[in-house]
Amino acid sequence: MFPRVSANALHVSRTSSGFVRQVTKIASARQGKLDRRERVPAKYPMGRLRLPHEPKEKMMSAIVDTDLADRRPLGRGDAKTLILSALGGALEFYDFVIFAYFAKTLGHLFFPPGTSDWIAQLQAFSIFAVGYLARPLGGIVMAHFGDRVGRKRMFTLSVFLMAVPTLIIGVLPTYATIGVLAPVLLTLLRVVQGIAIGGEVPGAWVFVAEHVPRRRVGLACASLSSGLTVGILIGSLVAAGMNARLSPEAMLDHGWRIAFLLGGVFGFLAVYLRRWLSETPVFTAMRERKQLTTELPALVVVRDHLPGVLLSMVVTWVLTAAIVVVILMTPTLMQTAFHVDASHAFTAGSLAALALCIGCVLGGLLVDWQGRARALLVVSTGLAVSTYALYLDLRSGGANLYVLYPVAGLFAGVAGIVPSVLIAAFPPAVRFSGISLSYNVAYAICGAATPVLVGILAKSGGGLGPAHYVGAVALVGIATSLYLMRTRRPFHG
What we know:
Order of helices and strands: HHHHHHHHHHHHHHHHHHHH
Number of strands: 0
CATH architecture: Up-down Bundle
Shape: globular
CATH topology: Growth Hormone, Chain: A
Helix content: over 70%
Structural class: mainly alpha
Number of helices: 20
CATH class: Mainly Alpha
């Protein structure tokens, strides 16, 4: 009466049902228990919606694959990607920041003679700030193609665009040779540098974050940030070494050119290193599943992810205060506001930059251990306290400069925490554009205004103006961390 069922068929049936139960169990855990602190909404499994034409079975398979990928340890391929990305970023960021270390020299060479030290410095910092104003243009354009054609191509293009103008600055005639054309050309080259760095930094964070398991995103982004700060360290060491070995006359004559020509060589070396990197697995998977956005990515970001944009802009402001004021401007401000010898200022700056590299990695580890909100709270508080301690000591004579400046540099490691907040704020399909838009617009506003504003503040408040600025911005970081802990914003994987 009943058809006979073979033992093999029964075995297949049981195996299949067991597999289905296992898939269901993983999917349930994936949607409901990703992280105790950062809960993903049910409509965003794996950071995306199921497409109308996509079978549920395919979606379930994708969830399982991503779950397994999230649990895997860091491998040799991950280490290679992180090291090469960080090294290339270090060489490129040197090109961008070396301008700040030679701001005083450039101010005298590229503006009319007879200008006072303070005015010359302010003019040079203004040109330095122009690079920040150009960042949104480069960031939005490169991010558009990064979300449409691939992360790696833009990752390589950005470093090439940085190397060329740096090399040209190294051979650029000064005001004494070509007059007013000198600061004009210097400004235009600085704009190209700004365009390049606008695509580099967000693209680099996205690149490394999409190569590693989610539970190691904090360390991945922090290692890249640490690599970028190694570029600051190299710049500081070059400036310190040249100021120690060359006379002021030699620095004005040819010393500053060596620093920029070296930067051009570094840039082309970074282009070569990035030939060995591969496209991110996340972008490759989206391309294979036809999940790449067909709309203008920047429009999707503004229309659908405005809260993420605002959050990202606020934390970028904190990063700006830490890097621009504490690390880049303080060595020069020591000389003009507190009359510290140039060699001592740049040596202390090198120690602070080294501490910053370590602080970034520690900040990333703290993110993976305690979550981005708690990490941001701890380090923002430390940034405010340590910066005040540094500037109070400078006002008293700088007896503890070599101790307090590295401590402030360590807490400037908030630069290793902020990228994790940015990565979590946007889904993969528009992640590059979302981070690039919010980060670069915030950096353009804050980064361009900060050098000029802090330069003016340094003349008032007994020299504590820069510390007041950093303290106020650090309070914004503390408030943001409390907001993240209270709202438990989701992590878009």
